[in-house]
UniProtKB/TrEMBL annotation:
Organism in which the protein naturally occurs: Streptomyces afghaniensis 772
Keywords from the named record: DNA-binding, Phosphoprotein, Transcription, Transcription regulation
GO-annotated molecular function: DNA binding
Superkingdom to which the source organism belongs: Bacteria
Pfam families the record matches: GerE, Response_reg
Sequence ranges assigned to domain HTH luxR-type in this UniProt record: 153-218
Family annotation (InterPro entries): CheY-like_superfamily, NreC/VraR/RcsB-like_REC, Sig_transdc_resp-reg_receiver, Tscrpt_reg_LuxR_C, WalR-like
Domain Response regulatory: 4-124
4-aspartylphosphate sites (modified residues): 55
Name the record gives this protein: Putative transcriptional regulatory protein YxjL
Gene Ontology process terms (BP): phosphorelay signal transduction system; regulation of DNA-templated transcription
Family annotation (SUPFAM superfamilies): CheY-like (SSF52172)
Amino acid sequence: MVVRVVVVDDQDMVRSGFAALLSAQSDIDVVGEAPDGRRGVEVCRRTHPDVVLMDIRMPEMDGLKAARRLLDPPPGVTHRPKVLMLTTFDLDDYVYEALQAGAGGFLLKDAPVAELVQAVRVIAAGDALLAPSVTRRLIEDMTRRRPQAGRQARLRLNGLTPRETEVLGLVARGLSNTEIAGTLVVAEQTVKTHMTRLIAKLGARDRAQLVVLAYESGLVVPGSAG
């Protein structure tokens, strides 16, 4: 499968550099670029990408607002791409808000080329939260600052079965479906079924939001994830 990508960044050199690096991959097709969030949304509406690389801080419309428009489109718009936020700050309030809004994860702009390419593939597959060590640190930091979110998250977890709760904890620790299946000694398809139920029961958009909920609820204690 070829992954269709749109790159949105207000720095011309960064945007064109990312686009060139990704276009060099046989399984990635850069179908559009934009210098700000507003035009990024317009390009995505026309090109229907699988993944959007979205800078956070931009003129006209910042990446957070643009991500929200893509992830929660108006009536009549059915396409929802995966969004990978780009930032120069690894502990940025905007990133946490983007994860809550449904972004699949984030990547530091100075990440190695191989990490950028792998991040796009991982986000497209929807299998695992990317940059788990940095993302986990971000979520841990933000959950400490937002204790009120924990009470709401705990209430949302009340309807889960013991096995679903166990799977959620493993997801929050950064395990892929294959790794969770091995840990629980079950078929990978069984894990996928649990994931589908978790997303439906918790009203989450994707794996990233499940991780946020696991930390906010206290199911995973900051600093305990391996």
